[in-house]
Amino acid sequence: MTLHRRGNQFLNQFSCACCVTSLGFAEMRKVVLVTGANSGVGLALCERLLSHDTEGLHLCLACRNMQKAQAARSDLLASHPAAQVDLLQMDTSSVSSVLSAAQEFKVRYDRLDYLYLNAGIMPNPEFDVKAFFKGLFSSNVITMFATGEGILTQKDGVTTDGLQQVFATNLFGHFLLVRELEPVLCHEGRTSQLVWTSSNNAHRSAFNPEDIQHRTGTQPYSSSKYATDLLSLAFNQHYEKQGLYSSVICPGFVMTNLTYGILPSFPAILWTLLMPVFWLIRVFTNTFTLTPYNGSEALIWLFRQKPESLDPYAKYHSLTSGLGNNYTQPHKV
Ligand SMILES: NC(=O)C1=CN([C@@H]2O[C@H](COP(=O)(O)OP(=O)(O)OC[C@H]3O[C@@H](n4cnc5c(N)ncnc54)[C@H](OP(=O)(O)O)[C@@H]3O)[C@@H](O)[C@H]2O)C=CC1
Ligand SMILES: CC(C)=CCC[C@@H](C)[C@H]1CC[C@H]2C3=C(CC[C@]12C)[C@@]1(C)CCC(=O)[C@@H](C)[C@@H]1CC3
C-alpha cells in the first residue's frame, strides 16, 4: 500500500516532466554509473570506458542479477586489472529497489559524473511475418530495417508496484533514479551527464500522453522509448542551470539478448548464419551496427564530448558503414 502511494507520488512528478565509497575528494576519479551493465550494449560500454581511461574512472555497474553482475565484473577486471569496478544491486522495474540502490550509492560516493540509463526490456515480442514480407517489397524497406516499424508488437505485464512492466523498467525506474541522485549529480562548478539508451523504434504514434504507461496498446517498447526522448528534453530544461545535461542515443540494430528474444524459436546458429545477410543490409542502412561494441559507439562518443557543446534536441546514433567503420551522427528528435 505504502509502495503504491510512493509510486504514485513519483509518478505524478514524472507525468509533469513528460508532458512538456568510498571515494573521497582526495581521489579525483570520475564516477560512472551504468544500468543494465552486465550484458549487451551496457557491458560493451563498460569495456570501452575502461580501455579509454582505466586509471581515471570509478565504474559502478547497476544490475538486477548479482550473479551476472559478478561475472561481468570479473570479465572487465580480467582485461583491466587496475580498474576500479563496483557493483550495485538495482531492479529498475521496482520502486523500492531503485530507492534503496540510490540511497546506497549516495552513502558510497560523493559525486556522479556520468549516469548511463541503459537497462531495457522488450518482453513477449511478436514478430509479424506477413508485415515483414510485405515490407520487404515496399518502398519502406530501409525504414523497416532501421526502425522495426510495423513488424513488432509486445505483450506487457504489470509490476508489483502496479506499473506497466516496460514503462517501469525502461523509463520510470530511471526517472526515479535521476531524481534520487540529484545531490551527487548537481554540483556547483562541475558538469554531469545523463545518457539514455533510446531507440530508432521510438514512434510518436505509439505514445499517448493520456496513457503514458501504454496500458492499452501493443507497442509499449516504442512508447517507452518515445517517452525517454521527451523526458530527456524535459530534463535538459529542468536541470539547465544546475550543470546537468541529458542526451539520448540509439545503438542501432545490435545482436544482444534483447534481439535474440524477438525470434525465440530461432536457434543461435541461425542468427550466426544470417550475419552475411545483415552485413549486406548494412550497405543500405548504416543502422545495422550488429555488435555491442559498435552499438556502444554513440555512448562512448558522448563520454568524450563537452556536454555544453551538445544539442539537447538531437538523438545521437551509433552507425556502422558498409565497410565496418563506426561513427556517431546526431539527428533531430
Ligand atoms: N539490441 C538492439 O538492437 C537495441 C537495443 N536498444 C536498447 O539498448 C539497451 C540495452 O539493451 P541490449 O544491450 O540490446 O540488451 P541486453 O538484454 O543485452 O541488455 C539489457 C540489460 O538491461 C538489464 N535489465 C533488464 N531489465 C532490468 C531491470 N528490471 N532492472 C535492471 N536491469 C535490467 C539486463 O539485465 P539481465 O541480464 O538481468 O536481464 C541487461 O543487463 C536497452 O535499453 C534497449 O532497449 C535500443 C535499440 C536497439
Ligand atoms: C529473419 C531475417 C532475414 C531478418 C529478421 C529481421 C528482424 C528480426 C530484424 C530486422 C530489423 C530489426 C530491428 C529490431 C529487431 C529485429 C529486427 C526487426 C529492433 C526493433 C530491435 C530493438 C530496437 O530498439 C530497434 C532499433 C531495432 C530496429 C531494427
TrEMBL record:
InterPro entries: 3KSR/17beta-HSD, NAD(P)-bd_dom_sf, SDR_fam
Recorded GO CC terms: endoplasmic reticulum membrane
Entry membrane topology: Single-pass membrane protein
Any GO BP annotation: cholesterol biosynthetic process
Catalytic activity line of the entry: 5alpha-androstane-3beta,17beta-diol + NADP(+) = 17beta-hydroxy-5alpha-androstan-3-one + NADPH + H(+); a 3beta-hydroxysteroid + NADP(+) = a 3-oxosteroid + NADPH + H(+); 17beta-estradiol + NADP(+) = estrone + NADPH + H(+); 4alpha-methyl-5alpha-cholest-7-en-3beta-ol + NADP(+) = 4alpha-methyl-5alpha-cholest-7-en-3-one + NADPH + H(+)
Subcellular location: Endoplasmic reticulum membrane
Keyword DNA-binding: no
Pathways per UniProt: Steroid biosynthesis; zymosterol biosynthesis; zymosterol from lanosterol: step 5/6; Steroid biosynthesis; estrogen biosynthesis
Gene Ontology MF terms in the entry: 3-beta-hydroxysteroid 3-dehydrogenase (NADP+) activity; 5-alpha-androstane-3-beta,17-beta-diol dehydrogenase (NADP+) activity; estradiol 17-beta-dehydrogenase [NAD(P)+] activity
PROSITE patterns assigned: PROKAR_LIPOPROTEIN
Record keywords: Endoplasmic reticulum, Glycoprotein, Lipid biosynthesis, Lipid metabolism, Membrane, NAD, NADP, Oxidoreductase, Steroid biosynthesis, Transmembrane, Transmembrane helix
Transmembrane intervals: 258-281
Quaternary structure, from the entry: Binds to the short form of prolactin receptor.
Annotated PANTHER family: 3-KETO-STEROID REDUCTASE (PTHR44442), 3-KETO-STEROID REDUCTASE_17-BETA-HYDROXYSTEROID DEHYDROGENASE 7 (PTHR44442:SF1)
Protein name: 3-keto-steroid reductase/17-beta-hydroxysteroid dehydrogenase 7
